[in-house]
Specification:
The protein has one helix spanning about 60-75, and strands at about 20-25, 30-35, 40, 60. The protein is α+β, with helices and mostly antiparallel strands.
């Protein structure tokens, strides 16, 4: 029998966790997720329950992006 990942409270399956990273972007500093060697821009798909930890995914400064990344990671755990 195949092992099925446990369901989280929203009913989604999470077999692996992802990390939140920041990357320099043309418009500022962008939050991204990194999972199994693949990096994707973070987006509202990650936000399931309110209150949301952040209201945007691109920031003017690296410091703002670092703080938002920490808040998003804590929310996702």
């Amino acid at each position: 029998a195949k092992h099925k990942p446990e369901r989280n409270k929203t009913g989604n399956r999470r077999a692996v966790s992802s990390d939140v990273i920041i990357r320099e972007h043309a418009e500022g500093w962008q939050l991204c997720t990194s999972c199994m060697g693949s990096v994707h821009p973070a987006g509202f798909r990650l936000l399931k329950k309110k209150p949301w930890p952040i209201d945007r995914f691109v920031f003017d400064t690296q410091e703002e992006a670092n703080e938002a990344a920490e808040n998003l990671l804590a929310y996702l755990l």
